[in-house]
From TrEMBL:
Segments crossing the lipid bilayer: none
Leader sequence segment: 1-15
Disulfide bond is among the record's keywords: yes
UniProt KW Signal keyword: yes
Pfam families the UniProt entry points to: CP12 (PF02672)
Name of the featured protein: CP12 domain-containing protein
Organism in which the protein naturally occurs: Trapa natans (Water chestnut)
CP12 domain boundaries: 63-133
Keywords tagged on the record: Disulfide bond, Signal
InterPro entries: CP12-like (IPR039314), CP12_dom (IPR003823)
Amino acid sequence: MAATLNVLGLSVAAAMISPRVRVSTTTIPLPMTVAVNAAPWGSLRPGRTIRRVVLAAAAPDSLEDKVAESIKNAEETCSEDPVSGECVAAWDEVEELSAAASHARDKKKASSDPLENFCKDNPGDEECRTYDN
């Protein structure tokens, strides 16, 4: 029997019979404490045991590596039949991944501008004012 917990915005599927925990999302918060019934089938010792569960995720591959890999896969797929639907789908995947990588680079650039960071905190300052004609 399994139950689904929603702790700090994280969906966790926890098995009631064993202390194993499966994570169903990729966003993982800091370590958390989860209350687990020590003996769900009933025992002589009533009560609950508190177990500390530390959830860890593997570091995601960089988007540039995924783009390079998808380009290689698209070239291999299209070498046999360049007008097939599989070839089109492979190049669509390349396009989506390269757009995601571009957006990630733009987001990183935008957050590194010190004036932008200052103006987020102080929108009324003279340096941050914008004028419309």
